[in-house]
Amino acid sequence: MIISTTPTLEGRPIRDYLGIVTGEVIVGANIFKDLFANIRDIVGGRAGAYESTLRDARRQAFAELEAEALRLGADAVVAVDIDYEVVGQGGSMLMVSVSGTAVQL
């Protein structure tokens, strides 16, 4: 499955547009990650636990997008947009949302 942020794929003409596909993942903040992130804020450095959680959420959202595209019979997803939002009471959760257009090449 080809997944691209561009609206077309060079040298690969789009034969049919199958519709918009999405993948959304919402992850909660963990109290221990928050504690260590606060310590890192004080002493400097990267918040590895948050980065790992963000990477995992993004991978899951792309997996959902791809699965939905495959169900439609797509060869590719073009014009993909990735969005990150803080949701929940006090911003306690992170939402990763990806969307694009499923196509047949």
From TrEMBL:
InterPro entries the record matches: UPF0145_dom_sf (IPR035439), UPF0145_YbjQ-like (IPR002765)
Origin superkingdom: Bacteria
UniProt record similarity statement: Belongs to the UPF0145 family.
Identification of the protein by name: UPF0145 protein KD146_03810
Species: Devosia litorisediminis
